[in-house]
Fold:
Amino acid sequence: MVGANTDDAGSQDPHDVGCYGLVGGVATKTVTGEKVHASLVSRTQGPFHCAECLTDAVVRKCAERIDHFAHKARLSPVVARGESSLHRNCKEEICNALKARFPGGSWECERPIKANKLKKIPALVPDVSGRIGEKPVVIEVQASYLTVPKIAKRALSYRARGCAILWIVPLTEDLGTENFRPRLYERYLHSIYFGRTYYWLPGDGILLRPVHYGVAYRYIDASEWPEPGGELQYAPGYEKPYKVVKKPVYGKRVNIAYDFHWNERAEFVPWNESKAVPRLSTWQDDLEVWWDREEQDAFERRYTYNA
Structure:
């Protein structure tokens, strides 16, 4: 399966995973809707799911730690911690392509920028930096271990220096078309760039693959259960949108050199996130919205008002 990367959320910080629904070892039995604790059930009693994000959950029985549930969802095939070659190749490929198109743009990889103590701006080392026309642009190739607060802090520091920022997520293989669970930092970048995350594969040069995180659905099976008086109750099956699992919806590929513009965006808090996106200078693509806005609006209304 393309990009069939899974993640045991029970063994990670739920803030990084982006869902606290399984904290405490409780999940929901999908067929009956019953809340159960991991210590009191076995795998054969499933299926289970997380009541918060609706992702399928698996029960973990461990000798080294207490029984718990973990999210089960495909993740994007991003650069793993300690895997430096793809990260380096992405920077060099993009930098070399921009040098060829803008020979007077002073494009470099990892050019150090000294701290400005007077303005309280820390030292910076952008992955790639230079000019497109008269516009100073910095490109950061996202490493999976960089946290959301660090992304925000770094982006603010570049804005203070008058630079537009473009964040890119390199992939080890194609993302594919199946549903997946974006990591917290991917969702944050998605918010920064108005509903798209920019992915890159080796050989893409300065072409990027913008992906919108579209609404994905899980099917809730029909169920029957007896009432205390013996009367049999029935609930038909239906589709319910996941909260965090998404469907990748692709826009057309965009060229960093020609399909982007300088954008000043105001501070805001994404509708379903806790971390604010600060006022930033971004290098933003020129694409019109390519996803189903009505479906997205209905999804946001549903979970904003707990419908």
Q: What stands out?
A: The CA atoms of residues 271 and 300 lie 7 Å apart. Residues 1-12 have pLDDT under 50 and may be disordered. The chain has five helices and 17 strands. The first strand starts at residue 26 and ends at 29.
